[in-house]
Design goal:
This protein has helices spanning 2-7, 14-21, 25-52, 60-66, 71-75, 77-89, 91-97, 102-133, 136-140, 154-182, 185-205, 215-237. The protein has 242 residues and is mainly alpha-helical.
Length: 242
């Protein structure tokens, strides 16, 4: 399969690297829906508790409180951060041993992360459509129609989930690349530097908060993704294959 494809060529293509990553397609494609299922169950349990405490399902107060549900936002990033790390730290040595160049590996990994992010965005759009069509799962359970994901706006939800997933994957990949390049010091130094820089940026932008617009977050996400991707290639360009 993928290994045979890589072995047939002296230099593997980016498409071959994508296939190598998706050798674990069951984990990559089945885990996000499973996590969403768990988030739904937890949200439903919380809704029952609130109902037993006197809240009225379907009321304006119920809808307003339910749309603050952050379950989806907090449940998926951990998995995708781990996937971002794994796609670099575990696959990089194998890909190079099978004929991939470092540039090709990074390109294939980026394409893999984009494909995963698109998959998550489509999955979330389908869930939003079902949620709205069933009047929030027939019992007033808000999972995807929440403020943090665009308050029911399909475009904002798709953009948020796509960029958010890609950002987490890219940062995870950059962290793993720094570990491959310089060992345990890499992720530690990278995380410390990122926290300092983000803190300084936030401090500098505080006076502009009254003029805040949502598109600023889109620009910030794109910039951070670009920095993470450049960092990933920079680290891997001279990394020792272990």
């Amino acid at each position: 399969m993928t290994t045979q494809t890589l072995e047939r060529t002296t230099h593997a293509t980016a498409r071959d690297v994508v296939r190598l990553h998706f050798a674990q397609r069951v984990m990559l494609l089945a885990t996000p829906p499973a996590i969403m299922g768990i988030a739904f169950v937890v949200t439903a349990i919380v809704c029952v508790i609130l109902w037993r405490m006197g809240s009225v399902p379907g009321s304006a107060e119920w809808a307003a409180n339910s749309r603050n549900n952050p379950a989806v936002v907090w449940s998926l990033p951990g998995f995708f951060g781990w996937i971002g790390v794994q796609t670099v730290s575990l696959t990089f040595p194998l890909a190079l041993s099978l004929g991939s160049t470092r540039r090709t590996f990074v390109t294939g990994t980026i394409l893999t992360h984009i494909a995963i992010s698109l998959y998550v965005a489509v999955m979330m759009l389908v869930l939003l459509g079902l949620e709205l069509a069933t009047d929030h799962w027939f019992v007033g359970v808000y999972v995807t129609d929440v403020y943090l994901l665009g308050d029911g706006d399909p475009f904002r939800l798709a953009l948020t989930t796509f960029l958010g997933t890609l950002l987490v994957l890219s940062v995870g990949g950059a962290m793993a690349a720094s570990w491959v390049r310089v060992g345990a010091r890499g992720p530690l130094a990278l995380a410390a530097g990122a926290i300092i820089v983000l803190g300084l940026v936030v401090i500098a932008l505080v006076p502009l908060l009254p003029h805040f617009r949502l598109w600023w977050l889109v620009v910030a996400a794109v910039v951070m993704i670009a920095i993470a991707l450049v960092g990933q290639y920079t680290f891997l360009r001279r990394a020792t294959v272990r």
